[in-house]
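U., I forgot to send this yesterday:
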Amino acid sequence: MPDVDVFGALANPVRRQLLEALRDGPLPAGELAGRFALSRPAVSEHLAVLRHARLVSEEPRGRHRYYHLAADPLAEVSDWLHPFEHFWRERLKALRDVAEGEDL
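Result:
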């Protein structure tokens, strides 16, 4: 499998959920697979995409494979989103102004 674009890897909700599961530390592949109503091979394919996008790394420990979150490629996403922060800040400020002006 060739290198996968970070944005393409993040486009799938299962892959985003896998990354969320790894936020608190490494987990074995079996435990990750157990969190989804998917077959183990399907979860394994998602993990392979994340590996090729360099979003996770794989560490063999005996008979198990542990997956670690690799946050560096997420900096690319942050860098891309940064110019849009002003837009969202303005939108959220407008929403706050409307909400605070309403009698709730």
